[in-house]
C-alpha cells in the first residue's frame, strides 16, 4: 500500500511538473503542425507544392552555407528529402544552428564588450614566440578570433576528481571579501549545492556582491520554477540564461554550458564540474564519476571576469564599470608565474567554432603524444581525420571514454568511431569504474586544454562554452600524471572487440553516426 501511494505521489508530481507541462506543450505544437500541413497538403495541390519547394530551397541553402558543418548538413538533408512536406519547415523552426535575429543582435553585445575590454600584452607574445613558434600560433589564433589574450603572472592548479574541485572551491569562497561570480549549466539541491549556498548566503549578508547565472534547460529537472526569486530573497543576485519557453524555436538549441567561478578578480575556476552531488560522488549515478577542473590565480582571471560580466550585463540589460574588477584591484603585489595561460570562451553567434579549432590546432602540432579524456566521442570528419593522421605519423594517441555511459545512445555513437581510430594506431580505453566527464586534451606534455567543451556537435557548435589553454604549466604535467593513473583503471579496447560486435549493433551505430549532429 505504501509503495502504491508513493508511486501515485511521484506520478502526480511529475504530471504537474514544469518539465512535463513544457514538454507536452512542445509535443502538441509539433503534432499540430504535422496534422495541419499533412491535411492541407493532401487537399490542396498548391499547398503541397509550396512545402515541397520550401524543402528543396532549404536543402540548397544548407548546401551553400559555409558556416554549417558538413556532418550537420547531411544529418538534416536526409530527413528533409525523405519527408519534403515537413522537413524544410522543421529545419527553419528548430534546426538552424544560429539564433534568431533578435536574440543574435542582443548577444552581439557580449562580443563588442569583450573586444573593448581585452587586450594582448605584446611583451607576453614576444616572449612566447621566442620559446615556441607553435605555441605562439595557437595563442595568436585565440587572440584574433576569440579575442582573449594569453597571460603570464598566473598559476594554474589541476583539480581532479570532482571532490578535489569541491573542497578547493569551498576554501576559496570562504576567502572572498568583495565579490563572487558564478555561472553554471546545472545546479541541483543536495550536499554540494547546499554547502556552497550556505557560504554564498553568509557572504551576501556580509556585504559581498554575490551573483549567479544558471541555464534554464540545464536546471529544468533540478531546480524549482522561479528559483532566481528564491536566490534574491537570500541576497544573491541571480539571472537565468535563455529561459525555456514552450514555443518551438531554434534558440532552444543555444545553451549556456559554461562553468565559471570568479572570486575578487584574482581567483577563478572552470572545468566539467557542475553543482550537483553526482559530480562529487555523493551518490552513485553512473558508477564512479571522474571529472576535472582548473583553479587559476593571477592576471588570466581577467578573461573569466569579462566572460561573466558581459553575460551578466546582456541578461540584465545593465552596464558595469569593468575596471573595478581588474585582478590587482583587490590583490596587492605581483602574482606568481607558471607558463602561459589563455582562458577563452566559444560562442555560437560568431560563426567561428573556436572550441573545435583549438583542439585541432593542438592535435595538428603534436610531435610525440596526444592524450584525451572525454565523455563523448562524437566527432566530425575534420577531428577524426586529424587524430588518424597523427597516429599514422607516429604520434602516440590515447583516448579515455566512459565505461558506464550516462546516455546509452550517445555512448553507442561514441563506440561507432572506435574501429576507424584503432585501425590507424589510436589506443582507446574505457574507464571501468564508471563515467568520465572530464574534458581534457594534452599534447606532448607541454600543451593542455581543460574546460567545459565536449567532443560533440552541440558543445562545439550550439552551446556557449569555456576552457583554459595552457603551455608549459605545472597543471599540464599534473593532468598527464592523472591521465596515466586513470588509464590504469581502464579496459583497453581492441580491434577484436570491434569485430566481435554483432551486425545489428553495427547497423545501429552506422545509422546513428549519420544523425549524431541532431542529438
Describe the structure.
It is a single chain. By secondary structure, this protein is an alpha/beta fold. 48% of the residues lie in helices and 17% in strands. The protein has 20 helices and 17 strands. Strands 9-16-15-14-10-11-12-17 form an 8-stranded mixed β-sheet, with helices on both faces. Helix 3 packs across helix 5 (87-95), helix 6 (101-117) runs antiparallel to helix 12 (301-316) and helix 15 (408-415) crosses helix 20 (503-514). The radius of gyration is 24 Å and the shape is globular.
Quick overview of this protein structure:
This protein has helices spanning 2-15, 18-43, 45-64, 70-82, 87-95, 101-117, 122-131, 133-146, 162-174, 191-205, 227-233, 301-316, 354-364, 381-392, 408-415, 418-422, 457-462, 474-487, 495-499, 503-514, and strands at 154-159, 179-184, 209-215, 237-241, 260-263, 267-271, 288-290, 293-298, 340-346, 369-373, 396-402, 427-431, 434-436, 440-443, 447-451, 465-471, 490-493.
